[in-house]
Amino acid sequence: MKKMSFLFMLVLLVGGLFACSNSQSTGTNTTEEKKEEASSEPIVIKFSHVTAPDSPKGKAADLFKQLVEERTNGKVKVEVYPSSQLFDDDKAIQELPRNTVQLIAPSTTKLVSYDPAFQIVDMPFLFTSDEAVYKFWDGEGGQILSKKLEKYNIKVLAMWANGDKHFTNSKRPLKKPADFKGLKFRTQTGKVLDEQFAALGASAVPMGFSEVYVALQQGTVDGQENTFNNIDTQGYAEVQKYLTVSGHGRLDYLLLTNTKFWDSLPEDVRKTLEEIIVEVTEQQRKWSEELNKESYEKLKESGMEVYELTQEDMEEFQKAMQPVYEKFADSIGQDLIELAKKANE
Ligand code: LMR
């Protein structure tokens, strides 16, 4: 018995020594192999967004993936998560600095959690055309706002468009400010939109994008404001009878990344990605304009009752919404508001 256990111990000892020396002798190789493996492993970019794959943002995210994977010869892999599959916007905005996601494209107003000035897009009837919006974000206005994110380890890569917002609701045609009285509207976030609806005698209920359809269906809210394309691709026509074409605010995006992640990319890769972003941004803005026009036609055919505000109505709305400027012009920044107005010229 004693002899057996001695032999057993000996086998264990020799086996252990052999294993040890074996691992030491191949140790360098293993590390090298590991290094090689690591360098041949693709860089993975997770891209999270909340809209449908066939929206201007969804199509652009997919085009970005396609071009990156083609042009980096497999060095970079892009995983696109549409329709809030990975995160809703609020969560994505929190997660980006932690690098659990590397690309996001939230509506600019949702960055209010970093700075109130991002609500400039909600100032009623401020921007008068798509071109003015591009001029603002591609110019000094965009630079001032991008700087505000730097200290949070967030880098702005581009501004992507969606367009003018319009009202929908299930209760009645909204033609004049007084028609809003007592209605509840889903909003994206922020105090400016609260005040916009308060100025019309209505109330604002902030809510994540993925929850809106059910809230409209169940009557938790009576209406909402969004672009033609979001109204169309989210199927709101099924649960909203009235559409008021107002163009009272904007819904556009900032394509954002984690600064440390971006700076850690090999230079050639980063350069390729930046070139692709310029190309995709141009196409994204074209899609935004085209798809919103198409969606408007679809909404008119959907059975929704559509009312286009006249110039006279518009003036009444501007007057009714004036308190928004009185309350928020300072926190948004008079300089930014002036730059937006200049972009309209
Ligand atoms: C919304 O929440 O209504 C929008 O921000 C959704 C989007 O990304 O277009």
Order of helix and strand elements from N to C terminus: HHEHEHEHHEEHEHEHEHHEHHH
The fraction of residues in strands falls at: 15-25%
Spans of at least 5 consecutive residues whose pLDDT stays below 50 are 1-30, 32-37
Averaged pLDDT: 91
Approximately how much helix is present in the residues?
A: 40-55%
- CA-based shape: globular
The major beta sheet can be summarized as: 9 strands, mixed
Q: Look at the helices and sheets and give the structural class.
A: alpha/beta
Rg is 26 Å
Number of alpha- plus pi-helical segments: 14
Quickly describe the structure.
The chain is built from 14 helices and nine strands. It has 345 residues and is of the alpha/beta class.
Identify the notable features of this structure and list them briefly:
single chain; 14 helices; globular; alpha/beta; 9-stranded mixed sheet; binds (2S)-2-hydroxybutanedioic acid; about 50% helix; about 350 residues
